[in-house]
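Field reference: sequence -> structure
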Amino acid sequence: MRFALSEDQALLQRATREFFAAEFPLEETRRVMEHDASGFDRAAWGRIAEMGYVGLTVPAARGGQGLGAIELAVVLEEAGRQCVPGPLFDVMLAAALLGATSGQEALLADLLAGRCLVTIARDESLYPGGTDAPTRVQDGRVGGIKYFVPFGASVDALLVAAGEQVVLASGPFETTALPTFDLTQRFARVSLDHAAVPLGPATLLERIDRLAAVGAGALLLGIMSRLLDTTVAYTQTRQAFGKPIAVFQVLQHRMADMLAKTEATRAAVYRAAWCLDHDDPDAALACATAKAWAGDAARLVCGEAIQMHGGIGFTWELDVHLYFKRAKTLEQHYGSTAVQLERALASAGY
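Structure field:
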């Protein structure tokens, strides 16, 4: 299949790249990492909401942009390239889930406008030790513990996967911050004992999980693309034995491997997005494959970028480590590589 962005999608890509570059220079990401315990800047979050990114896949009839998974991948690829801090991806997923349910119009409108934050508290069994207090709904209340809830300490409400249903729980919440490699992606352990508003069956999460796989793959693609460009530029200026190190064949081979991994990821991510938008029978397999491949590919590309920057590759002063940390976080969340491989096998009938 030959694939190219449409004229509108290419315009979205250019506009998004310009916006993220202007609003989120890497100096801002470093400032957030060092000085903001929430992992993001509220004023900057408001500007993201104004651009309409939160409701990108929410139906237009419900106040969103009414676009699809391909547009989501376009935006998140650019977010990955710029290492945008904050809950953009997680809130986009929550908005997509709310947009697929009936009711909660006021909450959805506030979310799209940036007046509140909502993320998804997913199945705790996906995490080590996560089955010690399974989430349950009883007598109109949801109770239990969720682990690695994205920005759990900052959210106003959570969309909670609880057994065979999804419910809405409003804050405040009792949270414990969990250690994270990337300080602009915060996670929390959340103790629940809240009134539960039913939203629908747990099957609602099937499409959201696939959308999450595409989005995480797109973020990883953006990271790989940026680090490839950065590494090529560095090897053309760094000299050894009186020559730019880019002329040495062994490094050229390694950069060729980085390019091959990046472009294969691009094909996998956008193929999966296309399948999701067109309700293709292979959508589940394509989405799981894209995320699993992207996680492994990003590990190689990020590792090679650090190695080819030499001894300074992982120092705080260089930007490379910011991307490495984001990639490692994405590799483990939104369905780790192991989880995605299990989903791929299941979708293929094994």
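Note: The beta strands are 118-121, 136-138, 141-150, 157-162, 165-170, 174-177, 187-195, 197-201, 239-240, 243-244.
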